[in-house]
Backbone:
């Protein structure tokens, strides 16, 4: 039986999955004698904030700044995002810890790949993947590969010199971007190249002292040459054809990047695959779209409930009790809930007799179908509008 089927058959709630994730992090720490931090985004959810954003840096800084450990492993799942944020996170991690390893079992694309390439080691399962690191820039109404665009510009420059002019279509395309913007495209492309070219020799190749085959002593020049080759391959959009391309272990090894294969260690593989599965189920059965977690601390970022918003009363500032009906997005079951703002036991009796249940203390509705509905955002909005704390 797969880990996914096993967890589904247990019919666990969102809270159960949260506790299981922390337990698995603890198991990982014992096995590897390290400190594991989980940063994961629900890549399949169409939410802008799933990408790597500046707020993530502040959250990571807050959760890890007081950690007393020389080593840190980072379980990373992200579609990418801000390269500048990736740089800030990496600089913080490298200043804070002596050794930083990255664990990849899902997708760590674009800026996520840039982060992973700053690690002393990259640990990957067979299901894990990195991605190209060519910057994505907006030109006109579309998003383009910076590498592709610069290659196209170079081609058109050569053509213009040879022919003495550009054809009307190409001339129109070139006119859409100013010299300043063109310079920005080049800078965006160089940004990732410079970061990774600097980080690989400093961290990934730190303990690379001799070649595997000839046992030749590795020099700083050899490390820099290898770094330039890897970066050239990862930034080459012509090689991968798509910015979303999944680059697997075998692909990375072909371009000269050594990967620690998690599947060769059955105990470690079981823990990592279970972590990946629990994260997947948390994303699928709750409104959570981003997870920050250690063995003892967690922050789950949830999307606002959409579609079935409970309505506030016409004069919420005077409300003593607010009722709402919320439908499970998965099975359609209807939940009748009341929230009280005055200390009156009669409210509980009256509304329970009408089939209502108190607003949940953890601000989450746990449906029997396994889906979890996070209504914490609604609670905050309701308390703000009424000007009182909920007393349920």
Residues:
């Amino acid at each position: 039986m797969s880990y996914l089927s096993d967890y589904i058959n247990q019919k666990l709630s969102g809270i159960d999955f949260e506790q299981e994730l922390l337990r698995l992090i603890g198991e990982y720490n014992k096995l590897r004698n390290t400190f594991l931090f989980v940063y994961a985004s629900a890549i399949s959810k169409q939410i802008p904030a799933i990408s790597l954003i500046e707020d993530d840096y502040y959250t990571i800084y807050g959760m890890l700044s007081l950690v007393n450990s020389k080593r840190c492993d980072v379980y990373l799942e992200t579609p990418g995002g801000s390269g500048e944020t990736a740089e800030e996170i990496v600089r913080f991690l490298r200043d804070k810890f002596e050794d930083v390893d990255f664990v990849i079992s899902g997708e760590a694309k674009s800026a996520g790949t840039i982060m992973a390439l700053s690690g002393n080691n990259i640990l990957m399962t067979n299901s894990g993947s990195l991605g190209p690191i060519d910057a994505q820039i907006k030109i006109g109404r579309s998003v383009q590969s910076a590498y592709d665009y610069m290659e196209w510009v170079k081609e058109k420059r050569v053509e213009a010199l040879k022919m003495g002019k550009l054809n009307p279509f190409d001339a129109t395309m070139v006119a859409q971007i100013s010299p300043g913007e063109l310079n920005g495209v080049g800078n965006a492309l160089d940004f990732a190249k410079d970061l990774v070219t600097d980080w690989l020799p400093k961290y990934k190749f730190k303990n690379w002292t001799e070649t595997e085959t000839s046992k030749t002593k590795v020099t700083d020049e050899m490390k820099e040459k290898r770094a330039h080759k890897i970066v050239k391959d990862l930034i080459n959009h012509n090689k991968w054809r798509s910015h979303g391309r999944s680059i697997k272990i075998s692909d990375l090894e072909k371009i000269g990047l050594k990967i620690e294969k998690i599947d060769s260690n059955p105990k470690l593989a079981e823990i990592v695959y279970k972590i990946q599965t629990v994260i997947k189920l948390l994303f699928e059965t709750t409104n959570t779209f981003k997870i920050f977690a250690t063995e003892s601390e967690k922050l789950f970022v949830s999307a606002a409930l959409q579609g079935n918003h409970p309505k506030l009363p016409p004069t919420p500032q005077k409300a003593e009790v607010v009722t709402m009906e919320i439908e499970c997005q998965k099975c359609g079951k209807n939940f009748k809930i009341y929230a009280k703002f005055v200390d009156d036991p009669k409210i509980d009796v009256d509304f329970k007799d009408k089939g209502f249940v108190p607003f949940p203390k953890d601000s989450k509705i746990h449906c029997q179908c396994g889906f979890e509905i996070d209504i914490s955002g609604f609670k905050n909005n309701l308390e703000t509008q009424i000007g009182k704390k909920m007393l349920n």
